[in-house]
Amino acid sequence: MNPNFPSLAGIKAAHRRIQPFIHRTPILSSEAINEIAGCEIVFKCENFQKVGAFKARGAANAVMKLNEEQKRKGVATHSSGNHAAALARAAGVAGIPAYIVMPSNAPEIKKKAVKGYGGEIIECEPNLMARETTLESVVARTGATFIPPYDFMDVIEGQATCALEFLEDEEGIELLMAPVGGGGLLGGTALTAYYMSPEVEVIAGEPTGADDAYQSFQAGKIIPQSGPNTIADGLLTSLGELNFELIQKYVSDILLATDPQIIEAMRLIYERMKIVIEPSCAVPLAALLANKDRFNGKKVGIILSGGNVDLGKLPF
Fold this sequence. Notes:
By secondary structure, the chain is α/β, with parallel strands linked by helices. The protein folds into two domains: about 10-55 and about 150-315, 3-Layer(aba) Sandwich (Rossmann fold); about 55-145, 3-Layer(aba) Sandwich (Rossmann fold), CATH 3.40.50.1100. About 45% of the residues lie in helices and about 15% in strands. It has helices spanning about 10-20, 30-35, 55-65, 70-75, 80-95, 110-115, 130-140, 155-170, 185-195, 210-220, 240-250, 260-275, 285-290, 290-295, and strands at about 25-30, 40-45, 75-80, 100-105, 120-125, 145, 175-180, 200-205, 255, 300-305. α3 (about 55-65) packs across α8 (about 155-170). The longest helix has 17 residues, at about 155-170. The chain starts with 7 loop residues before the first helix and ends in a 12-residue tail after the last strand. Keywords: Lyase, Magnesium, Pyridoxal phosphate.
């Protein structure tokens, strides 16, 4: 394994480091959902996290690990989603500048969040090349440190603290599930499970309309995302290389779910648990319900990744 991957001591240190900036999120369950699923499910509710998503963890850890000179010049990233808000907030709390490159078509609600946390938005054309070249010019102009959204050791280490809390707070988990997009949450989760409870199986949920992680996992090499099309807008990015290494080593399977299945699982959580989640968040439950035999009678921990959804555009 890459010797630079976080150790268990590193993950625990990250957890102490970010403590003042995050919530230790609750674990909830639903008897009605257990009955439907044919297994016992416990949900780690990162939809109640600061900025409404697990991304608060990785961003806080990356910002807190900067040296004084780096802090003075601030941080920069390109993101249209939760990482943008998470980094803006972490920088705001640390009292340092945050420069966020966002595509012009990014949802207004996400732009509002970034501005609300004190981030400076630099808009660009809505394509990856424009995002990357705009970011390069911002970094050249400001000297800010680029904090990538998922393929970055300090971010993976921060995201790994979610599973650390989960396994500390809940006994008897046999399977651990998380959604996969760039893979920061899944990679960090798999690493923590390997260190703390190697007998726990880690399984990812992914949309059929953005299944590059599934394809890469099957092929044993990274197959880039092309033309993703899914309601799970938080999972549209290509899998990161560092995360792929962790996933190959410590994840036992990636299961797929269709958009109708994702919407059904999302609705189930709204109706039975009375909590707000975003579509990406419902993917692991959707994948579980599509493969019930695999989980029959087991105790399953699912990380609910976030709750940033435009309530005016609910799919049901």
